[in-house]
Amino acid sequence: MSTGLSWHGGRALLGAVSGARVHERAVEPGAEVGWLLHGPRRCVGAWLAGATERTSCPHHATVAPDGGATQCPACQSVDRGLALARDQILDDGRTYLLYLAWFGEGLLKVGLTAEQRGDSRLLEQGALAYALTARGSLPAVRRAELTVSASGMARERLKSRLKVDHWWRHGDEPHRRTVLTEARDRAHRLLDGHALELFTDRPVVDHVDRFGLTTGAPESYGEITALTDGAVIAGALRPPVGRHLFLDQPAGAPPLLLDTRRLTGWTLTPAAARPTEGLTIEHRLRPPEPDTQEALF
Fold it and tell me: Which secondary-structure segment (H or E) carries 147?
């Protein structure tokens, strides 16, 4: 059973469950892949307090084949990560980092991540660049996140579609570095007096080249919007962008875009030399450039 794509130590890994253990395989750009999906799509279990690995769902529950939820209600209710995201855990004794992340022109996000995770959370979100801003306890960093968000300079959440639409409009690296450096300076002024260690000299980290987006994403592509039992996903991998994968298709057909969270809960087996089939695909084009002349009037 797949658990989707994650990042560890700067490497993109596709996880699969065997028994009670998760086995991960590196995602290598240029590799030819083929996956046959077997159903039903099942709950992936939960991260429990104190556990170092995900605990399998004790109910072997199924989840909707085309839905966003990958856990049954019982596993959601005990999942530590969800509890943190919903502010149901006020402090867990770990050190946290506050970050500002750039997802394209006008898309600045503020967030937090456990220091021990390094930049994995920023890579998983598909941040094109980011600047670490402060360090502290969970309560202190959460208060800082709310303060920055309330100022209107950065958002706490961005929808996946909005991120994808900005893969073509991200400026050059000096521009991204300038925007994030200036944003961090503004955040520090907002956070004056907070119980935090402020980072003034941490370099801006840029992921555009790592994601293969230096010249933008493909001009046209097919977005996989639904999967079914028996579907086959195949193609040659491009560098992953967050949790998304572009798969080049044979005979010059447009590449496919897969949000790997759609794989979560399905059983995958190798399907070498089989064509893509059984997918719901929506054809998409590069978003048009903003009409700056129109904006003047």
Answer: helix 138-150
pLDDT single digits (tens) 214-271? 988 999 999 999 999 999 999 999 999 999 999 999 988 999 999 999 999 999 999 9
206, 208, 214, 219: CA torsion to nearest 10: -160
> 117, 75 in Cβ contact below 8 A?
no
Are 181 and 204 contacting, i.e. CB atoms less than 8 angstroms apart?
Answer: yes
Residue pair 267/2 in contact (Cβ under 8 Å)? The answer is yes
Which residue, chain included where needed, has tokens 């065997």? Answer: 18
Which 3 state secondary structure label does DSSP give 8?
Answer: strand
Helix (H) or strand (E) holding 284: strand 277-285
Q: Where are the domains of the chain?
A: 2-68+219-285, 90-206
- What b/e readout covers 66-82, taking b as 16+ CB neighbours within 10 angstroms? eeeebbbeebeeebbeb
Q: Residue 101 forms beta bridges with which residues?
A: 109, 130
Tell me the β-bridge partners of 268: 37
Strands (DSSP E) found in 151-276: 197-198, 205-206, 220-237, 244-248, 256-259, 267-270
Q: Which residues contact 260 (CB under 8 A, 6 or more apart)?
A: 4, 5, 14, 240, 243, 244, 245
Q: How many residues does the chain have?
A: 297
What's the Cα-to-Cα distance from 248 to each of 204, 251, 253, rounded to whole Å? 31, 10, 8
Q: Which residues contact 185 (CB under 8 A, 6 or more apart)?
A: none
**Which pLDDT does position 47 carry in this prediction?**
87
Higher pLDDT, 158 or 3: 158
pTM beyond cutoff 0.85: yes
Q: What integer pLDDT is reported at residue 45 of this predicted model?
A: 92
**Do 98 and 196 contact (CB within 8 A), yes or no?**
yes
Task: Please write the tens of the pLDDT for every residue from 101-128.
Answer: 999 999 999 999 999 999 999 999 999 9
Average pLDDT score over residue span 9-27? 79
